[in-house]
Structures are given as C-alpha cells and as structure tokens.
Amino acid sequence: MATLTVTAYRLGPLSVDVIDARGETSAPVNSLSLSSNRESASLEVPPGDYAVVATRPNGEVLAQRVSITTTASVDLAASGHASSETLSDAAERGLVPSVVRRSSVTKTGSKLSASLGTVLTGASGTAGRNLKSVLVSHGAFDVLGNEPFLRRKSFYLVQWQIRNGSWSPPDSLHDYEARSDYLGISLRGDANTTVEPRAVGLLNERGYGPVVMVPPFKCDLRITFLADGVAAEAAGERISNPSAVRVPVAIALPQSPMLSDLLSALASASFSGAENIWDDRFSGSDDDAFALLVDKTSDPAAALLAAHFLARFAPKRVPVQWLENLRRLLPSVADTHLLLAMRVLADRKSTPGGSVEDLLRSAEAAPACLFSRTRALLTQAMRLRKLPVIRGPQDDRAKPGDFLNVSADAGGFEAFWGSGPLQPGEDSLPIHPLPLDRMSRIFMEEGAFLP
Predict the structure, then answer these.
(1) DSSP one-letter code for 371
(2) Residues 95 and 177 in one domain
(3) Number of structural domains, the chain?
(4) Which of 23, 92, 134, 362 is the 20 to 30 Å CA partner of 114?
(5) Nearest Cα to 148, choosing from 447, 443, 442?
(6) What's the longest Cα–Cα distance across the chain?
(7) Is residue 341 helix, strand or coil?
(8) Regarding beta strands 40-45 and 415-420, do their DSSP bridges make them parallel or antiparallel, or are they unpaired?
(9) How do residues 77-97 score in pLDDT, each as one tens digit?
(10) How far apart, in whole angstroms, are the C-alpha atoms of residue 359 and residue 306?
(11) Within a domain: residue 431?
C-alpha cells in the first residue's frame, strides 16, 4: 500500500474524493473531509494513478491527477490569487473570483507536490455563477457577453442597531474600502461587551438598496458588497427574476476560521462533508464548535450559528434546554425562537418556553432575523401549523413573505432589498429619514464603484 497525504491550507471546508483513475472514475476509493481545524489527512491506497477531487460547499470543484508509488502528497491551493490583498481570504475560500494562475506540478523521487487547478465556469464561486445567471436574464450582458453602459449612480452606506428591543435611527458608516468591483467594510467585534444585532445597507438616492443583517459576533467581521450585485437592482424582486436566483449582493467573512467554515457549509445548497466538519471539531480544545454551544454566554451569536448548522445537518443533536437558554440570551432575534420551535417539533414534546404556536408567533414578531434560512423556515412552519399572519388595521409591519419576495444573497446572512431592517421592497417607507447631511456618498459608474 502507498500513503497519500492531502493538505489544504486556508481553503476552508472541502469534501475530498480520491478516485481510481484507471477507467473506474465512477467509484471513489476513499473519501475524506478537510476544514480549518483539519487541514491535512492521510489515507492508504494501492499504488497507481488517482484523481483527487475536492468540492467546496458552494459547489466549486478542484481536481488534480496524481501518480503514487510509495508516498505522495497533494497540497491543495487556489488556482489564482485575489484581485487585492483585502479579498485574499475570500478568494482562497472561493467566495469571490480570483485571478487565475497556471497549476504547477513538481516531482522528486516518489514524492509529488501539486497546486490544485480550479475548474472554472466563467466566474468562480456561488456568487460569481449566480451573478452571471441574474445579469444575463435581465439583459445586463448582450449575446456576446459585453456589459452595456450603465448610468452613474450614487449610494449611501448606512448602519442600524437594535437598542432596547427596537431598531435605532440610521447612522452613516465612513470606514470602508472602495474598489471598482467591490466595497468592503470591516466591523470590529468586542469580546468585553454585549452587542446587539445590527444591519448594514447600501442605499441609493431613493433610499432603496440591499440591506444585510449582521450577527453580533465577538470576532471581527468583514462585509463586502459586490458591484455587479448592487447594480442588478432590477432582479431584486422575485416576480421579475426569471432565473429564480437570489442576487448575490455581498459576501460575509467572519475573521474566525471556525465560524467561516460553519457559515459556508450552512449557506451551501448541499454539502456531503458537513457532518464531518462538525465532528472534526470534537478535538477537546477550547476552539471546537461544540464549545460554542456549551459556552453560549461568551458569544451568543456564534452559538446561534452552531445551532443553525446542527438544525440543518443533524437536527436532534442540540439539547432543547440549550436552545431555551440561547433564546433568553437573544430574545430580539427570530432565529432563536424558530430553532426552538423546530426542535420541539422534531421531538414531538412540549417545552416550558411555550407551545410551538407561541414560539412561531414570537419569531414572526421579532425585530431581527440574522440568517437567511430562518425566514423561509418560519414561513413553511406557519403554513404547516396553519397559523395565519395576523395584522391589525393600524399594524403595517411587513410579513415574512414580504422579505422573501425581495430576498438577496449575502453568504448565509439574512439580506433583502429595501429601505431599512424592517422595510422590505421598493414601496416601503423608511421609519427614520436618512441623515444625508452627515453621510458619505459613494458613486458607481458603468457598474463599477468609483474609488
């Protein structure tokens, strides 16, 4: 037998198949999962030719052929580099397109080292592919793939924060980095204070644009608005979007590799290695994902992300009591009420926190929804329980379906097109007017931000 070592540094979660390349490409010889917590793994295989095929949560495939005699190592690497140093982490994880470089293979004796070539179909990553689908369907590209002239636009970078259970008036964000294809914002975490959820929006002259909900992680966080996504305003409403694809308006990258792994798997359409990512965390260290749920009071938002991850990939592994405690820590967040309701439904048992109907009503009334899965699950659960959305004559709050009609993609975070955290849609009126006199103005021309 020969030893094959597969290594992936800073690439995030990968599901890796080692396939016999001698005509038996349909049957994997071995499979393994890599993540930020487990960047290298070895397996024993018979000598011969193999294909190492790695799949990201976003569906991007990396492939490399290797010949093994006694030992071989494959060092997985992104096929390109980021367009700027700021986006290097996002490019390595496949969240944004990279500048492609040729793959290289070197061989010394029986030991082989290779950089993994990315199989690209136009733009790389989910955001790139979805943007192509949305823009082509709306005529942003002609039949030759050329982008027509887009008029000059201006935007305001706005943030809101929950205080005492309600959203505060909008405030300006002045600390950002603008390049032609993106606008990046760095949000600092604070491990010593209790932080409430906030939202960030990039609103146009009419006070309308993409709004992204920001979980109050204790680690630093980077939100990057994509110029192509922001320019695809016409595809924001579901009824006018024949591709049925959420417009990717932003990417989110927590500056914790563990949280980034969980978030990328949570946001994926499907990922066969998801449960392995979780199991890799049971390392006994203080940095494993299980500790996030155990130590909820230290970082409730991180615990909520871990609970979301388990609710999708292993629904019965989260104790009900932990979800009840998480709900008490984040009462203004719809996600905590919904996750507890779904867990109770799975067990078919009651909880001291209230009936399933009460929990769903609490989720529907909460002022914040942090992750994109929550709103869709809430709508489905209310339909299954035959719970109508009740609004009084003077109650003009948006319904869950109103947010889904204009939903956007922000890498797993809740995002939609609107004028504020509670105002989805172009016809919604902001609760508070924008303080234009103290706001930075950001310009876009021909679909690109002006630095």
Answers:
(1) B
(2) no
(3) 2
(4) 23
(5) 447
(6) 79
(7) helix
(8) unpaired
(9) 765 555 566 677 777 776 765
(10) 20
(11) yes
The residue with tokens 């989910």 is 126
Can you tell me the distance from the alpha carbon of 379 to that of 373, in angstroms, rounded to the nearest whole number?
10
**Token digits of residue 327:** 């709900």
Pair (265, 344) in one structural domain = yes
User: Which distant-in-sequence residues (6+ apart) come within 8 Å of 87 by Cβ?
Assistant: 96, 182, 184, 224
Give the pTM: 0.80
Q: Residue 231 is encoded by which pair of tokens? A: 């320019």
Tell which residue, 244, 175, 184, has the closest CA to residue 212: 184
Same domain, yes or no: 316 and 401: yes
Backbone angles phi, psi at 414, to 5 degrees: -65, 130
What is the DSSP secondary-structure string of 247-269?
Answer: EE-EEEEESSHHHHHHHHHHHSS
- Half-sphere exposure of residue 448: CA atoms within 13 angstroms, side-chain side: 9
Strand bridging mode 111-114 / 105-108: antiparallel
DSSP E strands: which ranges in 206-363?
Answer: 209-214, 221-226, 247-248, 250-254
pLDDT tens across 413-446, in order?
Answer: 999 999 999 999 887 766 677 777 778 889 998 8
Give the pairing type, strands 247-248 and 408-409. parallel
Answer whether residue 140 is part of any domain: no
- Same structural domain, 309 and 242: yes
H-type alpha helices, 93-192: 125-137
Residues 215, 415: contact at Cβ < 8 Å?
A: no
**H helical segments located in 23-81:** none
Tokens of 162: 């929950």
Rounded Cα–Cα distance for residues 366 and 121 (Å): 41
